[in-house]
Amino acid sequence: MASDKPEYNLNNRVPPLGFDGGCSNIIDTEKFRQAVALLKESLFDGGATLFCSDNLITWNKNLSFLRDDQLVNIVNDPETDVTERSIIWRSYILFYFARASLDVDGDFIEAGTYRGHTAEQILKLCELGKHDKKLWLYDVFEWKEGDEHPKMDEHRNALMYEDVVSRFSPYSNVNIIKGSVPESFSEGFPDSIAFCHIDMNHPAPEAGALREVLPRLSKDGAIIFDDYGWWGYSAQKNALDPIASSFGLEILELPTGQGLLIKR
Ligand SMILES: C[S@@+](CC[C@H](N)C(=O)[O-])C[C@H]1O[C@@H](n2cnc3c(N)ncnc32)[C@H](O)[C@@H]1O
């Protein structure tokens, strides 16, 4: 009698994939390069599955995001800069939870927009317009002497804000609000929020954002914190954990350095 039990061939593997991107906080790049080369030599597959990027080294993983055409297109797009390419695993996680929030009541927001790269990918990959959702983007879009937030390359661009406005001009469902979070929320802030990305590299605006977002985050809505798990940004973890806890919630630290909170 034929068995209706499915048969699995344990050798039925996806082709091995590896990835090499930028890492930070390294004081001796030559030693690091040698160490990665030695690591490759030491591995059972000769390093074919080695992922080394964004301070994350793994091997013997499927790296599903490198098998997804939309994410591969982002990696290969000449408009994607080195950092944006290197954080592809973070982006994969972010897009996964953004998509998962499409059925949740409310709009999407990003506190800390920078050039708008991630925000535009969310807009496109989630087809927010088709889902009748708005995307609210918040940033100071500048850096002045004495400012507490870290100065980044794009802050040298005097037209940082204007360039982001122009980037999103084809989309009618995007609101861009220039100013310091959380005070700038008074210029416009959705009544209910389905998905939120918090990425400002500083505990003060991040804590301020979380306090304002949590009461408006819908049930099953998600927040991704870009910096939560990074040791260098521990001050953010220390600031954010008690706020989440005061709402009976807990932030999950992910291996990418992100934090994930889902409101149940
Ligand atoms: C790491 S970047 C954001 C990157 C962006 N989320 C992306 O994925 O491309 C951090 C941004 O936070 C902004 N920022 C820092 N402090 C802020 C504050 N108090 N209010 C609003 N934006 C702030 C900075 O101007 C900078 O553009």
CATH architectural name of the largest domain: 3-Layer(aba) Sandwich
CATH homologous superfamily (4th level) name of the largest domain: Vaccinia Virus protein VP39
CATH class identity of the largest domain = Alpha Beta
Distance between termini?
48 Å
Q: What small molecules accompany the polymer chains?
A: S-adenosylmethionine
**Average of the residue pLDDT scores:** 96
Reported by name, the CATH topology of the largest domain is: Rossmann fold
Major sheet details: 7 strands, mixed
Number of helices: 8
Number of domains: 2
Fraction in beta strands: 15-25%
Strand order of the largest sheet: 6-5-4-7-8-10-9
Report the strand count: 10
Explained architecture:
- This protein has 264 residues and is of the alpha/beta class.
- The chain is 32% helix and 17% strand.
- The protein has 8 helices and 10 strands.
- The chain has helices at residues 29-42, 69-76, 82-86, 88-100, 117-125, 160-167, 203-216, 234-246; strands spanning 19-20, 51-53, 56-58, 107-111, 135-139, 174-178, 193-198, 217-225, 252-253, 259-262.
- The strands form 2 sheets. The protein has a 7-stranded mixed beta sheet with strand order 6-5-4-7-8-10-9, sandwiched between helices. A 3-stranded mixed beta sheet has the order 1-2-3, with no helix packed on it.
- Helix 4 (88-100) packs across helix 5 (117-125) and helix 7 runs parallel beside helix 8.
- It is globular, with a radius of gyration of 20 Å.
- The mean pLDDT is 96.
- S-adenosylmethionine is lined by residues 110, 112-115, 117-118, 138-140, 149, 152, 180-181, 199-202, 205.
